[in-house]
Amino acid sequence: MANEKNEYLLEVKDLKQYFPVKTGFMKSLPLKAVDGVSFSIKPGETLGLVGESGCGKTTVGRSILRLYTPTGGEVIFDGKPVDEKNIHEMRKQMQMVFQDPYSSLNPRMTVEDIIGEPLDVHKLYKTKEERRNRVLELMTLVGLNAEHATRYAHEFSGGQRQRIGIARALATNPRFIVCDEAVSALDVSIQAQVINMFEELQEKLGVAYLFIAHDLLVVRHISDRIAVMYLGRIVEIGDADEVSEQPLHPYTQSLLSAVPYPDPKMAKERKRIVLEGDVPSPLHMPSGCAFRTRCKYATEKCAQECPPLVDRGNGHQVACWNK
After folding, report:
1. DSSP class of 148
2. How far is 96 from 116, CA to CA, in rounded Å?
3. Which of 143, 163, 145, 138 is nearest to 153 (CA)?
4. Residue 4 carries which DSSP code?
5. 208 vs 217: CA distance, rounded Å
6. What is the rounded distance in angstroms from the CA atom of residue 151 to the CA atom of residue 9?
7. Do residues 37 and 14 lie in contact, with contact meaning Cβ atoms separated by under 8 Å?
8. Can you tell me the distance from the alpha carbon of 135 to that of 160, in angstroms, rounded to the nearest whole number?
9. Is the CA virtual torsion 97, 101, 102, 108 positive or negative?
10. How far apart are CA 93 and CA 99, in angstroms?
11. pTM score
12. How confident is the model at residue 277 (pLDDT cuts 50, 70, 90)?
């Protein structure tokens, strides 16, 4: 159970993640992959994080879990700061499902050893029998058969491999999981099965998710709230249905207009918003609002100041001077 004093399970405050990039002899520039991201997630809640490739979504997830050491900002989990001193203990409560089910599993380990590795690291069993029973319990939980335990990762399909990765993430009974493009590498039919499994696990175990994806239909289906990222910053965040039905930021409007619509008649009536220009280099960010170089509403103020996230009602926040 979460500490009753803490409304939020996870709080991310002004998170920054810069990477030095060499630009010449003895010269380097900071690549601002994440530049001042803030959000909170309640126990048992799903926050969807969407945006174009390269906007910093995955870096946010990895920085929260300190797979990258953040350049700045603060991550607070259940009222306690996540830092180098307590990250080992925190990792029992915070886990990750990686994007590629092919490269994230050790090809030399059996399924039993892959799923059992977190149990070994955190010493969560007393006997080998107890370890094996826990592994089989986790395999059943994600829809794998007991006879799969002695097989290797290459013997499974993509969907089955992702289930192995999910079972590994669940081994320590975490309360928060970062799902990094967890279904993007799977066939559409398999995607639906895995998404349904995520929802069932959340209902059964009460786990909270940061669900990183670029498919807005998938994100809207699984998320309670949605955050939209552009070049290392969150430009809009709010209730999933409200952001999907009434997007305020021009970038969110463009993303949603590109989503395929199942009804052909409705699809014809929808107007596609095509952005002009290319995404600026994160090494040479434009002044003010990073989106202004592609925005038809841009004004002189947009070039001078970066807009902060402002609540427009009902917790729906947007970073735009014209909204």
Report:
1. G
2. 15
3. 163
4. T
5. 20
6. 36
7. yes
8. 15
9. positive
10. 20
11. 0.90
12. confident
